[in-house]
Automatic annotation (TrEMBL):
Pfam family name, one: Lactamase_B_2
TM annotation in the entry: none
Organism field: Kaistella gelatinilytica
InterPro entries given in the database record: Metallo-B-lactamas, RibonucZ/Hydroxyglut_hydro
Source domain of life: Bacteria
Segments forming domain Metallo-beta-lactamase: 34-202
Protein name: MBL fold metallo-hydrolase
Length: 254
């Protein structure tokens, strides 16, 4: 299986509109970060999208990707769901509804934000979705998917584990029970918004490094990165061995 980072940035992306800091002015393409999303390629060649934010269309085009077979949604914030309408070309080509997997609360929000996709009589050209509520472990395209329950400030959201890789974005707390799912991983992917100053809804670098020491994955990749973390090259050079910054287009095989 493979995971490709379609985006590794926060809700504003990097560069931030109107910002001229060192990161936002950087010429290094690794400092250009679309909103966080990832694409899983299964052993059978199926494509599972994790989150579908406002950059989805250009992310797919930039990565020469042309298909999605199902979508996993971590939570309902706009930087993770507002691109769902751009799945229309994939839906039209396949001539079937796109399967969305999420918790019950997120499903209700998707219906609220895209009511035309669920209308009894659809407007011509509207997308069409099949909502599937995640209640525990499930199989998709012969792949076991294990939800990881984490907290994003006061909102319970989902991360996902596939084989020995776990993808967690927008977390600020992981319970001891859920940490049991994150033992002995080859790859742990965690959000890290900045180096200093605690954030109520996101991990910062010292917290992520503490989790790395506690959970001991073979490799840790940081995602959902803001311009406050510093340039890719400088920050990468400061990290411990086997801790890395993700960047858009990076692919991991597991």
């Amino acid at each position: 299986m493979k995971l490709k980072f379609l985006g590794s940035g926060t809700s504003q992306g990097v560069p931030v509109i109107g910002c001229h800091c060192e990161v936002c002015s950087s010429k290094d393409p690794k400092d250009n970060r679309f909103r966080s999303s990832a694409l899983i390629s299964t052993d059978s060649g199926k494509k599972i999208l994790i989150d579908c934010g406002p950059d989805f269309r250009i992310q797919m085009l930039n990565n020469n990707e042309d298909n999605v077979d199902a979508v996993l949604l971590t939570h309902e914030h706009n930087d993770h769901v507002i691109g769902l309408d751009d799945l229309r070309p994939v839906i039209f080509r396949s001539k079937k509804n796109m399967a969305l997997y999420c918790n019950k609360r997120v499903g209700a929000e998707v219906k609220n934000r895209f009511p035309y996709a669920f209308a009894d009589v659809k407007y011509p050209g509207a997308p069409s979705f099949d909502l599937h509520e995640i209640e525990g472990n499930f199989n998709l395209f012969d792949t076991e998917i294990i939800p990881v329950n984490v907290m994003h400030y006061k909102i319970p959201i989902l991360g996902f584990k596939f084989k020995n890789l776990a993808y967690i974005t927008d977390a600020s707390f992981i319970s001891e029970v859920e940490k049991e799912k994150l033992q002995n991983l080859d790859y742990l992917i965690l959000n890290c918004i900045r180096k200093e100053e605690l954030h109520p809804a996101h991990f910062i670098l010292p917290q992520v490094l503490e989790l790395f020491e506690e959970l001991q994955p073979k490799k840790l990749y940081l995602t959902h990165i803001s311009h406050h973390l510093g340039t890719h090259a400088e920050t990468e050079s400061e990290l411990p061995e086997n801790v890395h910054l993700a960047y858009d287009g990076l692919e991991l095989e597991f």
